[in-house]
Design brief:
Helix content: 40-55%
Oligomer: single chain
Strand order of the largest sheet: 4-1-5-6-7-8
Radius of gyration: 22 Å
CATH superfamily of the largest domain: tm_1862 like domain
Number of helices: 16
CATH architecture of the largest domain: Alpha-Beta Horseshoe
Distance between the termini: 58 Å
Strand content: 15-25%
CATH class of the largest domain: Alpha Beta
Low-confidence stretches: none
Length: 430
């Protein structure tokens, strides 16, 4: 009997995006990441000689009842259930249903962002909660006799591989994900991590709480080769590099781009970083390597608010920051790179005046796409609770108008002309 890894379904109209927000997770009405974490867990199990299988009930659009029947047909000796903080209610429902159907089956709940509510997952039906990054630790737990029920810490299982918080120290030790076991086509793209963590400690950011305040990069050749492997082996329409700050180490990002160019890589891909990490020279190299989209967190277009939330040290620095953003967006679009810009709505103390200043700035900035996201006070986020849901939605309306207008403008542009212009620009020597 195999060990089964499960990405459980949702009984609601919203779907669980457990990989979202650096694995803190969220409920989504549309966009979902494929279960990268489970694909790596399975790859580690294979390397360890363990008999494993993966059931992505989200990707297969299974109901909870259908999921239970699929598990029954497989009859696993151990069930690993992927969970996250932002999906905890549907995760608990899934665990309750699984426990009712299989009273004697050992169930391990796991997920980097689930460690903040492990006791609730145990109460819902899990025998064990694996706290920390599960990619290496789950196989170590599954290989030996299971301990007494309760929370099991990744750094207790493999102390040399994990830091005190249970986060993986050296991401280059991980094998490539077992995408062959995932219905990834349902998501429309594949994902990759060139690094984990971030050296910054922004008060509003959940990402460093999930991945750690230290960027750990893989060798650039290793990253370029994995992207080429994804292209050769699976042929996805696009690839998302899910690093929190892909361009934080400029020389590293350039080396990844050079590696892709040398390999004749041609699959469109995208990356994310702080705006100040990009510059025209780096953007041109990324474009030549096939990068078609960058994601940047503006957070706010209001200098006073940027200083208040700690995005910049002082209000005068905010003006420099916003001016440089204009240069970055113009350069990226000039090289045919789409720009997805994000701001937060519902921040503590945020007013309509802050929002209107942001809306005016974004209209001037003209990123390709604009995403005003509700601020969420994830566990241990330093900024603390934000505004009420009702007030957040009220403040969000002017920003949604901007997002709609920019999307309409993009839709009116002629795609073949955009591609021809990009090709022409990239042919110009440095």
């Amino acid at each position: 009997m195999p060990i089964l890894l499960l990405n459980p379904p949702s009984p609601t109209d919203l779907l669980p995006n457990r990989e979202g927000t650096a694995s803190f997770g969220a409920m989504s009405s549309g966009f979902l990441y494929p279960p990268h974490t489970l694909a790596v867990v399975l790859a580690v199990m294979r390397e360890a000689g363990l008999d494993g299988a993966l059931l992505d009930a989200v990707g297969e659009e299974l109901s909870l009842e259908e999921t239970v029947e699929r598990v029954r047909a497989i009859q696993p000796e151990l069930l690993g259930v992927y969970a996250s903080w932002g999906t905890q209610e549907v995760d608990k429902q899934a665990l309750q249903a699984l426990r009712a159907a299989f009273p004697d089956m050992p169930i391990v709940a796991m997920g980097t962002g689930a460690r903040y509510h492990g006791e609730a997952l145990l109460a819902a039906g899990a025998n064990h909660m694996l706290a920390g990054d599960p990619e290496l630790a789950f196989a170590a737990l599954a290989a030996g006799p299971l301990p007494d029920p309760g929370v099991v810490k990744a750094n207790a299982l493999l102390p040399e591989e994990h830091n005190f918080a249970g986060l993986i120290r050296h991401p280059q030790t991980l094998p490539r994900p077992a995408w062959d076991a995932v219905p990834w086509q349902a998501y429309g793209f594949l994902t990759l991590f060139g690094s984990r963590g971030c050296d910054d400690n922004c008060a509003y950011c959940a990402y460093v709480r999930a991945q750690g305040r230290s960027q750990r990069v893989r060798p650039p050749e290793n990253v370029a080769e994995e992207m080429a492997w994804l292209e050769r082996s699976f042929g996805p329409k696009r690839i998302m590099a899910r690093d929190l700050v892909f361009a934080a180490q400029r020389a590293w990002a350039l080396d990844v781009a050079e590696g892709l160019i040398a390999r004749g890589f041609h699959t469109p891909w995208e990356c994310e970083s702080r705006p100040e990490h990009f510059d025209p020279g780096l953007l041109k190299k990324l474009a030549r390597a096939g990068c078609t989209t960058i994601k940047i967190g503006i957070e706010s277009g209001d200098p006073e608010e940027l200083a208040r939330i700690g995005r910049v040290a002082e209000e005068r620095h905010a003006r420099t920051y916003l001016a440089y953003l204009r240069e970055v967006v113009a350069a990226a679009k000039g090289y045919g790179i789409n720009v997805r810009a994000y701001v937060m709505v519902g921040l503590p103390g945020q007013t309509m005046a802050n929002v209107q200043a942001t809306a005016a700035y974004v209209r001037e900035l003209r990123p390709t796409f604009f995403h005003p996201r509700p601020y969420v006070a994830y566990p241990r986020v330093l900024l603390g609770p934000g505004l009420s849901e009702e007030e957040t939605e009220r403040l969000r309306r002017p920003l949604l108008d901007v997002a709609r207008d920019l999307s309409t403008e993009y839709a009116r542009q002629h795609a073949p002309l955009r591609r021809a212009w990009r090709k022409l620009l990239l042919a110009i020597p440095d």
